[in-house]
Design goal:
By secondary structure, this protein is mainly alpha-helical. It is 73% helix and 0% strand. It has one domain. The model has no long low-confidence stretch (mean pLDDT 78).
């Protein structure tokens, strides 16, 4: 992986997770690579939650009933932010 990419990636992580998370020195170590993998996994999880909640919001009453939810339950879940479980 090119060093320039690591530095840009570290800057991106610093914006999202704070300045201590994205230093170029950490990104070039094994711990940094683990941290990078963790960050990618976390962002992927957030995107999945956001997508699932958009789909839940779009379901009809009958479809919600099929999965055992009410419109109120679906609205409560869909109104959560992507980082909330």
């Amino acid at each position: 992986m090119p060093r320039n990419f690591l530095i840009k990636s570290a800057a991106f992580i610093a914006v999202i997770f704070g300045p201590a998370a994205g230093t170029a020195q950490v990104a070039s170590t094994t711990a940094g690579r683990r941290s990078w993998a963790y960050s990618i996994a976390r962002i992927s999880e957030w995107r999945s939650r956001a997508r699932s909640r958009r789909e839940l919001r779009a379901l009809a009453e009958r479809e919600l009933g099929d999965i055992g939810l009410t419109r109120c339950d679906a609205r409560a879940e869909a109104s959560k932010w992507f980082w909330q479980q």
